[in-house]
Task: structure prediction
Amino acid sequence: MPEMDVRDLLIRSSSRIGQWWSWHAGTVTVVAVRRCCTDPRSVWPAFANRQTPTVDIGQDGGMMHRNPTAEIGSIGVTHTQLAIQTELGWLFREQPIEDFGIDAHVEVVDSEQVSGRLLALQIKSGLSWFREQSPDGWWFRPDAKHVQYWTNHSLPVAVILYHPERKRCYWQLVSHETLAKTSRGGWKLLVPETQVLDERARTSLSQAAEGDPYTLRIRELQLARPWMEKLAEGTRLVVDIEEWVNKSSGRGAISLGVDHEDGKDPEQLASWTVYLGLSSYVDVIPKLFAWANVGLHAETYDYADYDDYPFDRHDWGELHPYRNGAGEVDFYRFELTLNGLGRAFLLVDQFATTGRRQLTA
Result:
């Protein structure tokens, strides 16, 4: 791909659909989409979850200046995303600001099939990260809190360093084998100059994301933990579904949100575009949220009027639409409640995080 200024690319991409990521559950592939809008942060995915850059009002005629550190950081994330998507053909999802120490998740794609194998990325941008050279690359010095967080993370973690002059990303996996203890008790990580984030990184990064089905399912539960915790705290979570009933592809949209019980639409937490083929939505949805019971959202269905529903309803079960739009789209709204699996996982996860070591045979 020919190099171009990232800001130019941002402008050219203003009509694109952004932020593709996926979640593989059983035989169902779920691909998430964040639609573009007039907010410039949604024009290109790397900016979608980032805070508005800091501006300072200086003494030179009241001109406003963008914080250069914020600009370099945004460009680094964008270049990392470009490398993941164009060089590797994998899926990239930037993480919210509050996710301490992790900037993005990446999912491996094999022969156009998403795999459920994930990596977590910490992205650092700017020349300051390349000051400490070694014969083989550069030393990156994380603090002890980040080292502890990364080495105990549910996903394999890679550090990405973006060089703004070379316009290249360099990578290194974080592990006990790659981390080195310093003479003063700190940590350092060698990021090799030969490890450019491009096609050559495919094999190593793909192998790092490997796991048996058991491990991959546990990782999925760990990634869903924030949603389970919300349910445990009493937050009401709802799943909104739009199913295109006349599409053989099973096309639809699923979103997860918070019902604040204020009469407004739910506050969206995540959204996916799905293609379920001939699978039934009411059968698949409970499997995609295996840690929760799925039921009708009472307030929505109390006001449902089926007089104009265009299809036969004799085979409806407990889960069903609350309305249809123009004979094309069925709308559902389900509510989640934490089930036995979800409660058990939170207990096990808490023990695994804070509990004492056990005697074993």
